[in-house]
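All the exercises in this workshop are built on plain-text protein records. A learned vocabulary of local backbone shapes supplies the integers on the structure line. Once this layout is familiar, the rest of the handout is easier to follow. An example says more than a description, so a record of this kind follows:
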Amino acid sequence: MALSFMGICRRVSLSVLCGIRPTTGLYPHRLAAAQVRLCLVRQYSPSQARQGIGRSIASRLKWANEKYERFLQRRFPRFYVLYQTFMRGFRLLFQDAREVHRIRTRMITNRIDYPKLPYREMEKLRQVRRDVIKAIPLVIISIPPFANYLVFFLMYLFPRQLLIRHFWTPQQLVEFQAVYHTRRAQHHQAVLCGLERAVPSVKDDRLKSQLINLCNKVQSGAHPIVSDLHAVRTLFSGPPLGMKRLYTDQMRHLCPLLFLTPRLPAFWMGRRLTCHALELMHLDRAIARLGLHQLNDLELREACYIRGLNVEPLNPSQCRQWLSQWLQFSTYLKESETSLYLHSMVLLTVNFPKPTLS
């Protein structure tokens, strides 16, 4: 059967465009169409086309974002600072989320317990958990429709109460840490008075004398040494100062030391205090394994701050000196001595020497 004129022309044109030799056989038009499709796939891959479109869209979005940032910086400089802080905060938050996912995956895959983790991974899990707990009320507020505008307004007015550390400026970080420590320091005297009230309950005369001397030393403005605290450690694992023997008022004054709310039932407060104290004790042992010299200045200040020390007037050398003394004290404590650990956040911090003026 002879081919039509149009069929011959179609085959010739396809051969010229795609470099396909004419094909003879029973169904030449089908073979030619298949060769054309193969040629088009080779020359115009869909994956390459999608990549090209994606790069074009990404470049245009980047250009628009840079133009918008230049506009804000020129016309609204104060809002630009807020905008930059939020963008940086979201980037840090996503980085922390990926890091936590990696740590959790490695713990499950390699069957690593939490106390065996390296210090930085352990600290990352602790901090991210606290950030998530603090962010929960803000997420709940933003659930209703159009509530995001109200949330943004509230975040602008109350950054310390509603935002986590990722969304604070460096100036706000210093300012808010000072505010939190001031509130924490308001309970120092009450904690010391609680120790003095426990003195008559001590049966052993030697331990009673050592506890009195420790309280008098701190009350007089002197800084105790590690041996002063270790001498009375047995009083904090049982009566009268063990966690299960503390009065409710004493626990309410210990909660602000760890930035915990004291408005909870006594059994709940005691459980939370014990869990947070054990977590810090595991972190102390992780620092000892890592080596104190491996911490940079920022990590050093943060480690001192969460253990009760006011780091604002101190230089890195003094922070390192205090943390070294703290590790000498805490790494030898047992898990049953968490009460002594918590009280030492006052005993070893309240009179730490201030920096000398040059």
In short: The first helix runs from residue 5 to 18. Confidence is low (pLDDT under 50) at residues 1-44. Residues 185-347 form one domain. Residues 91 and 333 are 39 Å apart (CA to CA).
